[in-house]
Amino acid sequence: MTKLWKALAAAAALGIAAPAPAQDTGVHAFTMKTIDGVPRKLADYRGKALLIVNTASRCGYTKQYAPMEQLYQKYRDRGFEVLAFPANDFMGQEPGTNEEIKAFCTTKFRTTFPLFEKISVKGDDIHPLYAYLTTRPGLEGDISWNFNKFLVDPAGKVVARFGTRVDPMAEEVTKKLEGVLPKKG
CA–CA separation, 12 vs 8, rounded Å? Predict the structure, then answer.
């Protein structure tokens, strides 16, 4: 059984919405919980470019919250969102509760982009969203560490993947982002 199928079966058992592989509607098929525990359909972001990032508060790359916020501020008025998904999958670097994570991000980095509840981004308990992200043709592969980034176009299709070491404000990210931002009417 593949990683995606295992995640989809686990999602079904937990009542989590997940797309059927034969009917791929992109990331918009998922419903996630915000950091405050409120269900949020990713379809609510239809028409916007997204940067989906697995985050951690005690990682050497935690400082990337600052350029993530900078990127969000620069492009949000053009139809862009950063979606942060805290995960404790790498050496226990996100041990906090959702409340602690939210307080840390908003106080230390003054984040204003959407934060979601802590999930698993790899292994047997991988969340269906990350099982989906990590099996996209040409972008497949396990999450290697905190702050892996997926760029999603306004239709919900994953179009690029950037590793941990790639700064969110790097030219390779901004060029690709500018290429998928909604066109001004």
Answer: 6
The helix or strand, by DSSP H or E, that contains position 157, with its residue range, turns out to be: none
Handedness of CA 78, 101, 7, 40 (dihedral sign): negative
Query: Exposure pattern of 15-49 as b/e (b: 16+ CB <10 Å)?
Result: ebbbbeeeeeebbbbbebeebeeeebebbebeebb
Active site residue 105: no
Domains and CATH numbers, the chain: 3-180 (3.40.30.10)
Of the listed 4, 59, 139, 155, which one is catalytic? 59
Q: Are 121 and 130 in contact (CB under 8 A)?
A: yes
What are the tens digits of pLDDT across the range 120-169? Answer: 999 999 999 999 999 999 999 999 999 999 999 999 999 999 999 999 99
Q: Pinpoint the alpha helices (H) of the chain.
A: 3-14, 65-75, 98-108, 128-133, 171-180
Which token pair is 77?
């008025």
Predicted model pTM? 0.88
